């Protein structure tokens, strides 16, 4: 918002201009100069704020799914949350990554391109320690990971592919697959250094160890679905087609469901003393007149008025009318 001047400040400004202490033309030039903004073409912003917010929502869901998965696998306290979502050149992302780290490269068919998941060494070694029966302590080693440690980490992150699929399901049906595993970021030359990428930073805590997991998503991967990252798409109600096979199966099961049907001849109340004195051939008068229709009860709810009769040598009832349910709110 523009700054609103008080009356005293307005009077002081007019007084300064009148006395010559300030030049109105110079003020206009300064105002024009402020409107000029430096633009770095190397850091071209190819995603709108709306699209960045959508990516953030997707990965907030992913963070929750990853937290649940790791908690179950490690049987330890795990907390993962989205810290920031930024768009930067790919070269800047590579420079920000430590020389020794864990880099998972995923394909995301049917989309083109690959995304990178960078796991801070503190988190990677805490995961290994927990997998091997430790308390989840991080013991960083300068010599890098052994082949066995690489296999263990690859296996655990291959199991997280389903969580990534589920997180993105609201926008696109992707099939992530762990294609490559690297430790040195300099070996990752997948796209042009000036290509814009979205970097999602996840603050991660496993036990007492904390660190970051960074997910790098190139623009080329998001380009086919970029229209689905707008707020308009998220606000649209999905127009789902009816699954006729499931519909017919459900209908068949419902139609075969057994229900309890009873016809009430009449009711009355008697005392305990009268009940104890009942003898053979005693007559009990009911509250049902002989000419009035009976009530047909289905699953303990009165549904129809019926009249008794005989059909194929069996006692039967004929439906006369449906009993309308009374809405208590309209009484």
Automatic annotation (TrEMBL):
It is a peripheral membrane protein. It comes from the Bacteria. It is found in: Bacterial flagellum basal body; Cell membrane. Keywords: Bacterial flagellum, Cell membrane, Cell projection, Chemotaxis, Cilium, Flagellar rotation, Flagellum, Membrane. GO terms for cellular component: bacterial-type flagellum basal body; plasma membrane. It holds the Pfam family FliM. InterPro entries: CheC-like_sf, Flag_FliM, FliN-like_C, SpoA-like_sf. One of its GO terms (biological process) is bacterial-type flagellum-dependent swarming motility. GO terms for molecular function: cytoskeletal motor activity. Residues 253-323 form the Flagellar motor switch protein FliN-like C-terminal domain. Its main location: other. PANTHER family: FLAGELLAR MOTOR SWITCH PROTEIN FLIM, YOP PROTEINS TRANSLOCATION PROTEIN Q. Belongs to the FliM family. This is Flagellar motor switch protein FliM. It comes from Oceanobacillus zhaokaii.
């Amino acid at each position: 918002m523009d700054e609103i001047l008080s009356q005293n400040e307005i009077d002081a400004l007019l007084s300064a201009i009148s006395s010559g202490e300030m030049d109105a033309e110079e003020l206009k030039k300064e105002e024009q100069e402020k409107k000029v903004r430096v633009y770095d073409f190397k850091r071209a912003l190819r995603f709108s704020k709306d699209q960045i917010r959508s990516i953030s929502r997707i990965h907030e869901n992913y963070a929750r799914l990853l937290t649940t998965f790791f908690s179950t696998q490690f049987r330890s306290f795990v907390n993962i949350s989205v810290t920031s979502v930024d768009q930067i050149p790919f070269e800047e992302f590579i420079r920000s990554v430590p020389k020794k780290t864990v880099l998972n490269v995923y394909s995301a068919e049917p989309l083109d391109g690959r995304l990178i998941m960078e796991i801070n060494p503190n988190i990677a070694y805490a995961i290994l320690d927990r997998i091997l029966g430790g308390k989840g302590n991080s013991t960083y080693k300068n010599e890098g990971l052994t082949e066995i440690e690489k296999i263990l980490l690859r296996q655990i992150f291959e199991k997280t592919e389903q969580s990534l699929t589920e997180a993105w399901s609201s926008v696109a049906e992707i099939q992530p697959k762990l294609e490559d595993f690297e430790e040195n970021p300099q070996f990752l030359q997948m796209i042009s250094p000036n290509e814009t990428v979205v970097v999602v930073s996840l603050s991660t805590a496993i036990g007492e160890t904390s660190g970051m997991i960074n997910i790098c998503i190139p623009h080329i991967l998001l380009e086919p679905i970029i229209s689905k990252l707008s707020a308009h798409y998220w606000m649209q109600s999905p127009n789902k087609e009816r699954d006729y096979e499931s519909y017919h199966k459900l209908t068949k099961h419902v139609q075969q469901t057994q229900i309890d049907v009873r016809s009430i001849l009449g009711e009355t109340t008697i005392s305990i003393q009268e009940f104890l004195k009942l003898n053979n051939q005693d007559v009990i008068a009911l509250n049902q007149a002989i000419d009035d229709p009976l009530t047909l009860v289905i699953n303990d709810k009165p549904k129809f008025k019926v009249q008794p009769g005989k059909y194929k040598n069996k006692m039967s009832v004929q439906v006369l009318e449906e009993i309308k349910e009374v809405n208590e709110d309209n009484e």
